[in-house]
Amino acid sequence: EVQLLESGGGLGQPGGSLRLSCAASGFTFSSYAMTWVRQAPGKGLEWVSTLSASGGTTYYADSVKGRFTTSRDNSKNTLFLQMNSLRAEDTAVYYCAKAPSSDNSNWYGAFDYWGQGTLVTVSS
Amino acid sequence: DIVMTQSPLSLPVTPGEPASISCRSSQSLLHRNGKNYLDWYLQKPGQSPQLLIFLGSVRASGVPDRFSGSGSGTEFTLKISRVEAEDVGVYYCMQPLQPPYTFGQGTKLEIK
Hints:
By secondary structure, chain A is mainly β. Chain A has strands at about 5, 10, 20-25, 35-40, 45-50, 60, 70-75, 80-85, 90-100, 115, 120. Chain B contains no helices and 11 strands.
């Protein structure tokens, strides 16, 4: 059974940092691209970042580019989101999601499994 | 960036009746491979989103056949042939054609 378990959410200070983790199980983690999607309270879904299976290619939303870094440790089946220079507008539930493809060569979206999400609140 | 626009934003439906949601993109989602890069997701109350349809019309594993996706280019439709109580939630279209991948605003389906 595929499972994605996010952790690391909590209260962050404006200008501060948080690091989210997404522990994956039930599939060959190193073979699939992974994505972060967030949802501000009461709002819709916003794509944040996608990382290829190898970790060699990453895409970011303009709203987080230069502040957030997505990485993965395929030996530990874990996806990370390093969030720096936090802003109030980063307050959201952050979901990790799996794609059924590995990289641009076979990409077609279709995030087929999602975690339960972790809440990040940015406030002083 | 590709802008995704859904309509309606609110959809009250009587159980057993059909429902339809429209999704329009500001640019064509037709890939050079001939496939339309358009996903549909459902977020049920209190739950994470779940994939319903990908590549415009392909039902994801385990999705009931009362859900169908159609369309091409810039106009797409999600249809539910007979709405059931468990179908309540917010439906989102998303384009995975080119980053930044973008979602529609969401359509909230409720039971009358």
